[in-house]
């Protein structure tokens, strides 16, 4: 405008100006912002991550795990595959409206995956919707060693997660109970929280470490670099299936077969090792997380003690197993005030470590920005629990 090339009444930021501007500044690019829920944005703060790495570093130092990547595992059951896939992008004429036939939407099929910092993956464990588990049909074409079961919704719960660890996870790892403890990191969703899991972990010399709530997108290795490629590869397999089988639809009986190759590519040794490194777990690096990931949390105020107390009173996502266990008297020694007091303290700690509800849960708006990571089993927990 100063040079007289543009009139005052004309638009200043025209398309010509934009393309010239992008051409001059080669360091700029175009990308679609990542969707971030309010809970994730609020809880992924510097204070939360600082406390998490202090706690994790202490545990790894005490148990000599800094140089034993084969002993550090991450397990997650947030990967849900649907019969209705997302079509890939295609090149087409501008006058044509592209369409892609997909299968009807039905219940989810959950895959529980696990892998360690050394790059070894545990065969997947499938949770199918339904009541009767037909192993021959549902697990046909799945990766070798795969197993699974059914649930009413197709989602995991505390009983399924415990069964997975006891009967499937331990089958495929090398763990000497009398040697160095095994560290398992997982999110604190209510489907994982169970007091009976603590006794099992102690008996197997396993440390269960719950990640900070709503921070799995930056701290959980499987979420960072494994499940994304898995789902992208599954969508391609589903698209090929629909092209090769006109008139057919994808059901829970062929999801296992179509997820075989995606699971092996998603949980590859390279993806696992790079994901553990990017999350700062192994090699242990508290500064591994890019500070730009924590910027959204700066717009939220810190929760006061009154807000934290109200959040605890109104928490609606405590595992039913925890409530039932705490309400029952000690069957061996009878009810005692000491047990009741210890159980009350335990439930308060569980309140602040339960992670973001998944798509099938109701989201709560309470502030968990000051939550601390919970180490299970708790050293100061009452021995009767």
TrEMBL record:
This is DDE-1 domain-containing protein. PANTHER family: POGO TRANSPOSABLE ELEMENT WITH KRAB DOMAIN, TRANSPOSON. GO terms for molecular function: DNA binding. It comes from the Eukaryota. InterPro entries: CenT-Element_Derived (IPR050863), DDE_SF_endonuclease_dom (IPR004875), RNaseH_sf (IPR036397). Residues 363-385 are annotated as: Disordered. Transmembrane segments: none annotated. The lineage of its organism: Eukaryota, Metazoa, Spiralia, Lophotrochozoa, Mollusca. GO terms for cellular component: nucleus. Residues 119-239 form the DDE-1 domain. Pfam families: DDE_1 (PF03184).
């Amino acid at each position: 405008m100063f040079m007289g090339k543009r009139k005052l009444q004309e638009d200043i930021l025209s398309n010509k100006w934009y393309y010239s501007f992008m051409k001059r500044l080669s360091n700029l690019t175009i990308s679609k912002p990542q969707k971030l829920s309010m809970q994730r944005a609020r809880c992924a703060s510097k204070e939360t991550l600082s406390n998490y790495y202090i706690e994790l570093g202490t545990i790894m130092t005490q148990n000599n795990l800094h140089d034993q990547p084969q002993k550090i595992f991450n397990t997650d059951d947030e990967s849900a595959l649907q019969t209705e896939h997302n079509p890939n992008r295609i090149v087409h004429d501008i006058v044509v409206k592209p369409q892609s036939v997909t299968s009807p939407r039905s219940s989810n099929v959950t895959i529980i995956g696990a892998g360690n910092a050394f790059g070894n993956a545990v065969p997947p464990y499938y949770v199918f919707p339904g009541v009767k588990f037909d192993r021959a049909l549902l697990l046909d074409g799945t990766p070798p060693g795969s197993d699974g079961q059914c649930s009413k919704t197709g989602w995991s719960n505390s009983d399924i997660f415990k069964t997975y660890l006891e009967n499937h996870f331990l089958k495929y790892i090398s763990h000497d109970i009398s040697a160095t403890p095994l560290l398992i990191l997982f999110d604190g969703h209510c489907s994982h929280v169970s007091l009976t899991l603590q006794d099992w972990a102690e008996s197997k010399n396993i440390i269960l470490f719950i990640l900070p709530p709503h921070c799995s997108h930056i701290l959980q290795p499987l979420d960072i670099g494994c499940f994304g490629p898995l789902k992208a590869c599954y969508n391609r397999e589903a698209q090929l299936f629909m092209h090769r089988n006109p008139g057919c639809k994808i059901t829970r009986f062929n999801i296992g077969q179509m997820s075989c190759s995606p699971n092996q590519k998603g949980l590859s040794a390279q993806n696992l090792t790079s994901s553990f490194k990017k999350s700062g777990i192994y090699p242990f690096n508290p500064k591994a997380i890019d500070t730009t990931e924590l910027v959204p949390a700066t717009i939220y105020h810190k929760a006061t003690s009154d807000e934290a107390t109200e959040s605890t009173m109104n928490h609606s996502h405590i595992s039913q197993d925890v409530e039932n266990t705490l309400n029952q008297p000690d069957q061996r020694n009878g009810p005692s005030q000491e047990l009741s007091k210890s159980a009350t303290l335990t439930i308060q700690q569980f309140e602040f470590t339960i992670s973001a509800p998944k798509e099938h849960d109701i989201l709560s708006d309470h502030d968990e920005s000051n939550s601390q990571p919970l180490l299970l089993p708790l050293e100061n927990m009452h021995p009767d629990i």
